[in-house]
Amino acid sequence: MKLSYQVYDLPLKHTFTIAHQSRDVQDTLIVKLEEDGIYGLGESTTNPFYGMTIENMIACLEEFRPVVESGNWETPEQLWELGRGIFRNNPFTQCAVDLATWDFFTKKQGKRLYEYLNLDPRKIPTTNFTIGIDTMEKMVAKMKEVDWPIYKIKLGTEQDLEIVRELRKHTNSIFRIDANCAWTAEQAIRNSEELVKLGVEFMEQPLGKDDLEGMKEVFKYSKLPAMADESCIVESDVKKCHGLFHAINVKLVKAGGITPGLRMIHEAKSLGMKTMVGCMTESSVGITAIAHIAPLLDYVDMDGAMLLAKDPARGVTITPDKVTFPDGPGIGADLL
Predict the structure, then answer these.
(1) Model confidence at 18, in pLDDT bands (50, 70, 90)?
(2) What is the DSSP letter of 245?
(3) In a 3-state reduction of DSSP, which class is residue 168?
(4) How far is CA 186 from the centre of its chain?
(5) DSSP of 177-222
(6) Shortest CA distance to 113 belongs to which of 204, 12, 41, 192?
(7) Residue 297 CA to its chain's centroid (Å)
């Protein structure tokens, strides 16, 4: 078994702004596991908000290299457990390894990942398309640039309701809003009364991740369902979100990959919560991995590669009507 990796700069079509950061280029790390002519690819982007850099991700990979290349593991779950200690503070890197392991493992099985998991690709929900924070004119232009049935609108400004009202003038599509921790409980409850009239389906992470008392009020009084994102990073967070949020957004990159992501999804479902998997502006490597587990979900946010000016990989093709997977077993994404 051989471990290798490559760093890419992913240029974005537009400056992408959310409540706590902006970027024009997204760095990403693509990991490759190879043995006997079969290889698997996995990916994780960097993120300054979570302290994840190319440098500390590569350092983790090098520390884990002897474990991977020893070959003393048979399944993705086994390798994930072997990495629990090394990746304790760096789940982003563990995600890249885990995705590559699932790709490699299912290729050896001669099955697509969704087939191995006994999932039906016809049941994949339509992804939303994200509109980052900008001037109202530019947000309208971005929305018109991509005609889509569901838009996720990033908020966290002094004119959030005005933005949604303006966007609503130009489309009948479903809206989802994501405040990225920018509101107070009072703002979230008050805003929900207007947003529900504007065709908003749910609000994602309205409050700071540790504002549990505030979320109790939002959960009780909001006119919109609330979805956890920053409040639901790892497996132990799922139970904490029960009774505070109606749904969780699992980010594979933050959670450490498909292996823990699947456990989080199943636990949330057992608690009666709805589920979503979101992306972190990955290339088609990471996005294609998300698509394989999407039949499990109520909602999906896998538009990352659609936001790129240049994608270094090819993989799943996404339209409003269907998702088309690459030919062949495994996850199926490949570098250009």
Answers:
(1) confident
(2) B
(3) helix
(4) 28
(5) EE-TT---HHHHHHHHHHHGGGTEEEEE--S-TT-HHHHHHHHHH-
(6) 41
(7) 12
Give the C-alpha separation, 134 to 149, whole Å.
21
Q: Is the pTM of this model over 0.70?
A: yes
pLDDT tier for residue 17 given thresholds of 50, 70 and 90? confident
pLDDT reading at 21 higher than 80: no
Q: Say how far apart CA 144 and CA 147 lie, in whole Å.
A: 6
Place of tokens 């087939």: 115
Query: Alpha helix locations (H) across the chain?
Result: 54-70, 76-82, 91-109, 113-116, 136-145, 160-168, 185-195, 212-221, 235-241, 252-255, 258-270, 284-293
Report the half-sphere exposure of 333 (CA within 13 A, side-chain side): 30
What is the Cα–Cα distance from 304 to 279, expressed in whole angstroms? 6
Rounded to the nearest 10°, the torsion over CA 181, 238, 276, 270 is -150
- Who's near 11: CB < 8 A, 6+ residues apart? 24, 25, 308, 309, 310
Which residues have CB under 8 Å from 233's CB, separation 6+?
91, 251, 254, 255
Question: b/e string for 132-152 if b means 16 or more Cβ within 10 A?
Answer: bbbeeeebbebbeeeebebbb
Tell me what the mean pLDDT of segment 111-116 comes to. Answer: 98
Q: Which helix (H) or strand (E) holds 150?
A: strand 150-154
Q: How many CB atoms lie within 10 A of CB 298?
A: 14
Task: State the amino acid at position 45 in one-letter form.
Answer: T
- Separation of alpha carbons 203 and 187, rounded Å: 12
Query: Could you tell me the pLDDT band of residue 19, with boundaries at 50, 70 and 90?
Result: confident
For the segment 74-86, what is each residue's pLDDT rounded down to a tens digit? 999 999 999 999 9
Among 46-50, 235-239, 256-260, 293-297, the minimum mean pLDDT is found in: 46-50
Contacts (Cβ under 8 Å, ≥6 apart) of 93 = 29, 44, 52, 56, 57, 60, 61, 64, 87
Q: What is the pLDDT, as a whole number, of residue 287? A: 98
Paired strand residues for 275: 248
Please tell me what DSSP assigns to residue 325: P
Strands 274-278 and 299-301: parallel
